[in-house]
Automatic annotation (TrEMBL):
Belongs to the copper transporter (Ctr) (TC 1.A.56) family. SLC31A subfamily. InterPro entries: Cop_transporter (IPR007274). It is a multi-pass membrane protein. It is found in: Membrane. Residues 100-111 have a biased composition (Polar residues). Keywords: Copper, Copper transport, Ion transport, Membrane, Transmembrane, Transmembrane helix, Transport. It comes from Cladophialophora psammophila CBS 110553. The chain crosses the membrane at residues 51-69, 166-184. This is Copper transport protein.
Length: 192
């Protein structure tokens, strides 16, 4: 055996400074590795069946948390829309009340109490608008929620890239459970 082949085979077994007994089983093709498999880094090496079961449960919970974050984003956006709608409704109610009380000041000949034609119209103010600082705060919070969602989704994608059948099944189970738990709002909104 040549010296180059011997050094390459030795370095292939080392796998980043780990001894021969602690090598990670990593495959970029479909696999069913359990004990010995590594995910994300060599510190997440599965050393027992219990650790693998815990990892599977953790992956399911991670995907469920992604659906929770998506629901949180929808709830926050809906809360902002309701808040703005209520503010506009209060403005319109106040504006309608001012307009109706101003028109009742005239007497039977269409003249106001001073004999003038109609009372001077009160200036109409513009509908309320959300100030720029509030908009900025809202968008910062929305962007933060999006960034956390993006990070969790990217981490899930990295786990899927190990092509471990058990982990992919756990991702699918987590997606099912997360959608089942956190997407009732969409179903109930469609029924209304």
């Amino acid at each position: 055996m040549s010296m180059a082949a011997a050094s390459s085979s030795a370095s292939g077994m080392d796998m980043g400074g780990m001894g021969m007994g602690n090598t990670c089983k990593i495959s970029m093709t479909w696999n069913w590795y359990t004990v010995g498999a590594c995910f994300i880094s060599d510190s997440w090496q599965i050393t027992s069946g219990g650790m693998f079961a815990g990892s599977c449960i953790g992956v399911i919970c991670l995907v469920i948390s992604l659906e929770f974050l998506r629901r949180g984003q929808r709830e926050y956006d809906g809360w902002l829309a309701r808040k703005d709608k209520n503010m506009l409704a209060a403005y319109n109610a106040r504006h309608d009340l001012d307009a109706s009380s101003g028109s009742s000041v005239q007497n039977s000949n269409g003249k106001g109490p001073t004999g003038s034609a109609l009372p001077a119209a009160t200036p109409v103010s513009a509908p309320p608008r959300v100030d720029r600082m509030t908009l900025l705060q809202r968008q910062v919070l929305r962007s933060l929620l999006h960034a956390v969602q993006f990070g969790v989704a990217y981490f899930i994608m990295l786990l899927a890239m190990y092509y471990n059948g058990y982990i992919i099944i756990c991702i699918i189970i987590g997606a099912f459970l997360g959608a089942f738990i956190f997407t009732w709002d969409q179903l109930l909104n469609e029924a209304k």
